[in-house]
Write a structure and sequence with these properties.
One of its GO terms (molecular function) is structural molecule activity. One of its GO terms (cellular component) is plasma membrane. Keywords: Cell junction, Cell membrane, Membrane, Tight junction, Transmembrane, Transmembrane helix. Belongs to the claudin family. Its main location: other. With 139 residues, the chain is mainly alpha-helical. The chain has a single domain, classed as Up-down Bundle (Butyryl-CoA Dehydrogenase, subunit A, domain 3), CATH 1.20.140. It is built from 3 helices and no strands. The radius of gyration is 28 Å and the shape is elongated.
Length: 139
Protein backbone atom coordinates (compact mmCIF):
# COMPACT_ATOMS: atom_id res chain seq x y z
CA UNK A 1 0.00 0.00 0.00
CA UNK A 2 1.00 3.59 -0.45
CA UNK A 3 2.49 5.42 2.52
CA UNK A 4 -0.28 8.02 2.53
CA UNK A 5 -2.94 5.31 2.67
CA UNK A 6 -1.19 3.61 5.59
CA UNK A 7 -0.90 6.96 7.36
CA UNK A 8 -4.62 7.72 6.93
CA UNK A 9 -5.51 4.29 8.28
CA UNK A 10 -3.22 4.79 11.26
CA UNK A 11 -4.75 8.22 11.93
CA UNK A 12 -8.27 6.80 11.83
CA UNK A 13 -7.35 3.98 14.21
CA UNK A 14 -5.72 6.53 16.53
CA UNK A 15 -8.85 8.72 16.31
CA UNK A 16 -11.08 5.78 17.24
CA UNK A 17 -8.90 4.78 20.19
CA UNK A 18 -8.61 8.38 21.39
CA UNK A 19 -12.37 8.73 21.10
CA UNK A 20 -12.89 5.69 23.32
CA UNK A 21 -10.44 7.05 25.90
CA UNK A 22 -12.18 10.44 25.73
CA UNK A 23 -15.55 8.81 26.39
CA UNK A 24 -14.29 7.09 29.53
CA UNK A 25 -12.53 10.22 30.80
CA UNK A 26 -15.49 12.49 30.09
CA UNK A 27 -17.96 10.08 31.69
CA UNK A 28 -16.02 10.20 34.97
CA UNK A 29 -16.29 13.99 34.86
CA UNK A 30 -20.05 14.07 34.45
CA UNK A 31 -22.08 15.60 37.28
CA UNK A 32 -24.42 12.61 37.44
CA UNK A 33 -21.62 10.10 38.14
CA UNK A 34 -20.79 9.09 41.70
CA UNK A 35 -17.01 8.74 41.31
CA UNK A 36 -14.93 11.74 42.41
CA UNK A 37 -18.03 13.16 44.03
CA UNK A 38 -16.19 14.78 46.92
CA UNK A 39 -14.20 17.24 44.77
CA UNK A 40 -16.29 19.01 42.14
CA UNK A 41 -13.36 21.00 40.73
CA UNK A 42 -11.41 17.83 39.91
CA UNK A 43 -14.55 16.32 38.47
CA UNK A 44 -15.02 19.30 36.14
CA UNK A 45 -11.35 19.17 35.17
CA UNK A 46 -11.82 15.55 34.15
CA UNK A 47 -14.68 16.62 31.87
CA UNK A 48 -12.49 19.33 30.34
CA UNK A 49 -9.64 16.84 29.88
CA UNK A 50 -12.08 14.49 28.13
CA UNK A 51 -13.06 17.39 25.87
CA UNK A 52 -9.43 18.04 24.97
CA UNK A 53 -9.00 14.37 24.06
CA UNK A 54 -12.17 14.56 21.95
CA UNK A 55 -10.75 17.55 20.09
CA UNK A 56 -7.50 15.69 19.40
CA UNK A 57 -9.46 12.64 18.19
CA UNK A 58 -11.62 14.84 15.98
CA UNK A 59 -8.58 16.52 14.48
CA UNK A 60 -6.99 13.13 13.73
CA UNK A 61 -10.18 11.94 12.03
CA UNK A 62 -10.51 15.20 10.09
CA UNK A 63 -6.92 15.07 8.86
CA UNK A 64 -7.23 11.43 7.81
CA UNK A 65 -10.55 11.90 6.02
CA UNK A 66 -9.48 15.10 4.27
CA UNK A 67 -6.16 13.59 3.24
CA UNK A 68 -7.88 10.62 1.64
CA UNK A 69 -10.51 12.89 0.06
CA UNK A 70 -7.74 14.99 -1.46
CA UNK A 71 -6.14 11.82 -2.84
CA UNK A 72 -9.47 10.75 -4.40
CA UNK A 73 -10.06 14.20 -5.94
CA UNK A 74 -6.55 14.38 -7.42
CA UNK A 75 -6.88 10.88 -8.91
CA UNK A 76 -10.32 11.70 -10.32
CA UNK A 77 -9.12 14.78 -12.18
CA UNK A 78 -5.83 13.25 -13.29
CA UNK A 79 -6.02 12.68 -17.06
CA UNK A 80 -3.60 9.76 -16.89
CA UNK A 81 -5.93 7.75 -14.62
CA UNK A 82 -8.08 5.30 -16.61
CA UNK A 83 -11.79 6.06 -16.49
CA UNK A 84 -12.73 2.66 -15.10
CA UNK A 85 -10.40 3.00 -12.06
CA UNK A 86 -11.46 6.49 -10.93
CA UNK A 87 -12.93 6.79 -7.47
CA UNK A 88 -15.58 9.27 -6.35
CA UNK A 89 -16.44 10.60 -2.92
CA UNK A 90 -18.38 7.90 -1.15
CA UNK A 91 -20.52 7.79 1.93
CA UNK A 92 -17.52 6.78 4.10
CA UNK A 93 -15.84 10.13 3.44
CA UNK A 94 -18.97 12.06 4.34
CA UNK A 95 -19.46 9.97 7.49
CA UNK A 96 -15.81 10.61 8.41
CA UNK A 97 -16.20 14.36 7.98
CA UNK A 98 -19.43 14.34 10.00
CA UNK A 99 -17.86 12.25 12.78
CA UNK A 100 -14.84 14.55 12.95
CA UNK A 101 -17.10 17.60 13.12
CA UNK A 102 -19.21 16.10 15.90
CA UNK A 103 -16.12 15.07 17.88
CA UNK A 104 -14.71 18.60 17.58
CA UNK A 105 -18.04 20.15 18.56
CA UNK A 106 -18.52 17.82 21.52
CA UNK A 107 -14.97 18.43 22.69
CA UNK A 108 -15.48 22.17 22.46
CA UNK A 109 -18.67 21.92 24.53
CA UNK A 110 -16.89 19.87 27.17
CA UNK A 111 -14.01 22.35 27.26
CA UNK A 112 -16.47 25.19 27.81
CA UNK A 113 -17.69 23.51 31.00
CA UNK A 114 -14.49 24.33 32.86
CA UNK A 115 -14.91 25.31 36.52
CA UNK A 116 -15.08 28.98 37.34
CA UNK A 117 -12.33 30.30 39.54
CA UNK A 118 -13.43 31.75 42.80
CA UNK A 119 -12.55 35.37 43.30
CA UNK A 120 -10.68 36.56 46.34
CA UNK A 121 -12.80 39.69 46.67
CA UNK A 122 -14.33 40.28 50.08
CA UNK A 123 -18.06 39.70 50.29
CA UNK A 124 -20.15 42.70 49.46
CA UNK A 125 -21.76 44.57 52.32
CA UNK A 126 -24.86 46.62 52.08
CA UNK A 127 -24.92 50.30 52.93
CA UNK A 128 -25.99 51.11 56.49
CA UNK A 129 -29.55 52.27 56.72
CA UNK A 130 -30.04 55.74 58.11
CA UNK A 131 -32.62 56.45 60.76
CA UNK A 132 -35.43 58.66 59.56
CA UNK A 133 -34.67 62.32 60.12
CA UNK A 134 -36.78 64.26 62.65
CA UNK A 135 -35.95 67.64 61.17
CA UNK A 136 -33.94 68.83 64.19
CA UNK A 137 -30.61 67.98 62.53
CA UNK A 138 -30.64 71.17 60.50
CA UNK A 139 -29.26 74.45 61.81
Amino acid sequence: LLGSLQATRALMVAAILLGLVAIFVAVTGMKCMKCMEEDQVKKMRMAVFGGVIFIIAGMAALVATSWYGNRVARAFYDPSTPVNTRFEFGSALFIGWAAASLALLGGAFLCCSCPQRETSYPPTRGYPKNAPSTGKDYV
